[in-house]
Amino acid sequence: MLCAMTFQGNASNGLQQDAFFFVDDYYQEALGITPVRQCDDAFCVAVSDGVAESNLSQYASLKTVKTVKQLWQNYLDNSNQSPVMDISKIYEKVATLPKRFYGASATLALVYRTFAKDNQSNSSVVIKHIGDSRVYHFSAMTKTWRCITRDHNLLNQIVDEQAAAENRQADFGKYNQEGMASPLYALTDCLIADSDLDNNPMPAYDSQTLAVSSDDCLVVCTDGVHDLVPCEEWQNIDKHTDLQAWLKQLRKQIYAAKGRAYDNATAILVRFDKH
């Protein structure tokens, strides 16, 4: 089951630069919570956050989720095709926006599950992301939330460089640290409108496959959510939880937080129910 929430919040530029794709369409709304949807087989959701350095970044995020819709529809029309949700195609669509949008940029966090093959149930999802929009996993077994994506920012780049210098694998627990100097959170990769593709290279992105169990949950969200309310403060979820009520409670927490909803916020909640 799936449900999405978005709101403009108290963004200083007075704009809603978040956009999202939810099951079969894209949205960019000042305020809204979707009806709960049931998806027993293939599904796709995504959030995109326009980076506020440009007052035109809402166009980059909107183009991002429009392209997600196109790619997902292409898959539904021909489920044997590969690759699914090609990030390079999203990059090209954003990069080649008209010149008046140059400098507009956006993040992306995307989750999808393909159709099951040979009558076998599909118990895994694919997660792809660019920038600092994140995906969180709630384990029904441990009853805990954890972030499973690594922001593409200077802070995490330093973590990687230090690990490489010491000839070891970076500790995932060192990523996405809080309370550091704000310049360290500058994005190293995002989707940027600039048709000079030679000087606007394809951004780095991460892709992973996650096995999920019954009653596990995912939250796909923009930084207007996770910057203000860390996942340790999110409510637990079980098979009886009202997904709309859970998102409304998260919205209350964001407005009550120290930052007072200073940014746009979008969150998509996915619960994997037993069939």
Q: How does this structure look, described?
A:
The strands form three sheets. A six-stranded antiparallel sheet has the order 4-1-14-13-9-10. A six-stranded antiparallel sheet has the order 3-2-5-7-8-12, covered by helices on one side. The chain has a single domain, classed as PPM-type phosphatase domain (Phosphatase 2c, domain 1, 4-Layer Sandwich). Strand 2 and strand 3 form a beta hairpin. The chain is α+β, with helices and mostly antiparallel strands. The longest helix has 21 residues. It has five helices and 14 strands. Helices cover 22% and strands 25% of the residues.
Q: Can you name the CATH architecture? A: 4-Layer Sandwich
CATH level 4 superfamily: PPM-type phosphatase domain
CATH class: Alpha Beta
Q: Tell me, rounded to a whole number, the average pLDDT.
A: 93
Q: At the third CATH level, what is the topology name? A: Phosphatase 2c, domain 1
Number of helical elements: 5
Features:
275 residues, 6-stranded antiparallel sheet, single chain, Phosphatase 2c, domain 1, alpha+beta, 14 strands, globular
List the helices and strands and how they pair.
Blueprint: E1 2-7, E2 18-22, E3 25-27, E4 31-33, E5 43-49, H1 57-77, H2 87-95, E6 105-106, E7 108-113, E8 124-130, E9 134-139, E10 144-147, H3 154-165, E11 191-192, E12 206-211, E13 217-221, H4 223-226, H5 243-256, E14 265-271
Antiparallel strand pairs: 1-4, 1-14, 2-3, 2-5, 5-7, 6-11, 7-8, 8-12, 9-10, 9-13, 13-14
Helix pairs in contact: 1-2
Domain PPM-type phosphatase: 1-272
InterPro entries: PPM-type-like_dom_sf (IPR036457), PPM-type_phosphatase-like_dom (IPR001932)
Pfam family, one: PP2C_2
